[in-house]
């Protein structure tokens, strides 16, 4: 057998306008142009079926360069549009970075519907669209301080919220203000969100392994890690992608409990930091919070929380009791987050320790 046919791979330029990027993504999907990488990468060529290369966040180690095929991108787009009831001519609003799969998906989906992406980043007046994709931080701002963004969200048929969990209080607040939220869960390796409102999109399969970790499969699964093919083989040996997220099923719905590495051991008790944040927001609605652990002689790892508002430790401990009770509160100017709005626990620890 001969070698696999290759195609050129070029990095997306920050100088491209959104219309230019949309045109080049369309050409990458059809094969009329080179494959595109969201970041600079050493590879100059990829297999001919690869359309996009997108880096993972690298929050638990070196970022992986995820190679996504044309077929996977189309499968993801079609499944999302079927769930949303989107039809040709419908529009998408771009509010998130195009360096990540979520932003690139917005462009690919608009292209599939035959419309131009509405670039609503860094504007003072939003142009309405049928569908919007945002991160929890943006939803929080719309509900608490940004009236124009809230108006933009309420005008949409659906607002996809991904990149991290939202609390029940935030979901209820959004519903009360007529924002049609669709929660999404997924990762770059599955071409972005593939679980909508806690249920898999068409073609997606989900299960839990013996340790409660989520496994996913479907036609939108990526092809490989360009910079770590061995890790990809280990994670997908049986055709399922093994995530690092802990989940559980309740009434047929998948609840993501957090990353396996978001658990600390404090005083011999395992504590989910994501669960602490959810519990906190049940008692202190619409208050941003980040939970993290700091090495401690007495506790092993001391449960701490970071806030942007002044709450006394005693007030918080009165609501979060037992093993869920934080030992210390830090007040930050803002909650440290990644570019996609996920809380950055490593950065929080550094801030707390003054590093």
From TrEMBL:
InterPro entries to which the protein is assigned, alphabetical: AMP-bd_C_sf, AMP-binding_CS, AMP-dep_synth/lig_dom, ANL_N_sf
Pfam families named among the record's database cross-references: AMP-binding
Signal peptide residues on this chain, from the entry's feature table: none
Gene3D superfamilies recorded: 3.30.300.30, N-terminal domain of ligase-like (3.40.50.12780)
Domain AMP-dependent synthetase/ligase: 40-198
MF GO annotations: medium-chain fatty acid-CoA ligase activity
Any Gene Ontology biological process: fatty acid metabolic process
Official protein name in the record: Unannotated protein
